[in-house]
Amino acid sequence: IQLTQSPSSLSTSVGDRVTITCRASQGISGFLAWYQQKPGKAPKLLIYAASTLQSGVPPRFSGSGSGTDFTLTISSLQPEDFATYYCQQVNSHPYTFGQGTKLEIK
Amino acid sequence: QVQLQQSGPGLVKPSQTLSLTCAISGDSVSTNSAAWNWVRQSPSRGLEWLGRTYYRSRWYDDYAESLKGRITITPDTSKNQISLHLNSVTPDDTAVYYCAREFLGRGFDSWGQGTLVTGSS
Known about the structure:
heterodimer; A: mainly beta; globular; B: mainly beta; 7-stranded mixed beta sheet; 4-stranded antiparallel beta sheet; 11 strands
């Protein structure tokens, strides 16, 4: 199953509302996770089951979608949110990741 | 709190075997609630799932199709850890390798610190 994220990169500012999309090549129900990765660090799980916030993740992060189309939204971007974001389908093996969306400071 | 601590060499000669270990604390490798995965990341391939091992009354494993025949992931219950072995390494296997826990099918909620492995002489 291929995952296509858009955009690949985004120049944004603190306080902006940001939406990242992830499209699956076939239906995956709600079996989608979102990760945040900062340089030199491992990915961090933000959201699982498309819309459930992982414990400890700030509520400005939210996820939605089902089937083939999913979104990750950051309601008000904070300085620590500038990072690369990945989606991952956990519907069927082999689990696959999107190519990533890099948030950069405008 | 689950912690995963990786160890292993950062340089592997072509045609030799890459071996990494992931020591688990805060959970058991034999738990029925998780699977233990290896993932790698490179600029050319992005994040690539390699395989996993898990226990459900007996041990199971799954591997990426592209690596079948070269990869083995094994649990060690006495040390509460998993190991990755990838043989016949080429420069194309150069990547940062991560171990990660998949908990109840919710994605990978705990990750090792990553190990940069370079396939070069």
